[in-house]
UniProtKB/TrEMBL annotation:
Keyword Secreted: no
GO MF annotation: an example: acyltransferase activity, transferring groups other than amino-acyl groups
Keyword Transferase: yes
Source species of the chain: Pontibacter indicus
Location of the N-acetyltransferase domain: 1-171
Name of this chain's protein: Protein N-acetyltransferase, RimJ/RimL family
Gene3D superfamilies (UniProt xref): 3.40.630.30
Keywords: Transferase
Pfam families in the cross-refs: Acetyltransf_3 (PF13302)
Domain of life: Bacteria
InterPro entries reported in the protein's UniProt record: Acyl_CoA_acyltransferase (IPR016181), GNAT_dom (IPR000182)
Amino acid sequence: MNFRPLRLEDASFINKLRQEEDMEQLIGGAKRPVAYERDLKWVEQLILGDSQISIYFAITPSGSDEIVGYTSISEIDYRNGTCFWSGIKIDATKAGKGWGSEVALKILKFVFEELRMERCKAECLEHHEVALKMMLKVGYKQEGLMRNTVYKNGIHNNQWLLSVIREEYLELKQRFSL
């Protein structure tokens, strides 16, 4: 598995991901229909915008350039050394095959070694047990349950708040040979 920058042609794949109802119900963001043209403009803005507070990566299989998902780091705060791993959106055929753990570890390596962050936080819906299990597996620590933080699927949902700090990352680096 590799990361590469997003490309304009990735907008079609991203737009198709938005149509996957099962996935949309499990992520923290609001579900809304988005036209391909809007995703094309969004990807173009990500590519050309040179944001200092967010970074997006296309996820590709090893030995291929074809996008199978994307991930991002946002809320990058260089002064305080903190950021937010915004999670993963990946083709449903890749789910349950270790892609999530591999992406999460690669993100942690980037966050702590390239961005020199002190803390990386993440969130997941309380009932998204797969995401919670994966984040705990790769070393995130649960900090608490944030109540009624996301209105989704007709109700207000709780979210787990998790994080990894630099000291913990150094242990994870050895454990996972990063």
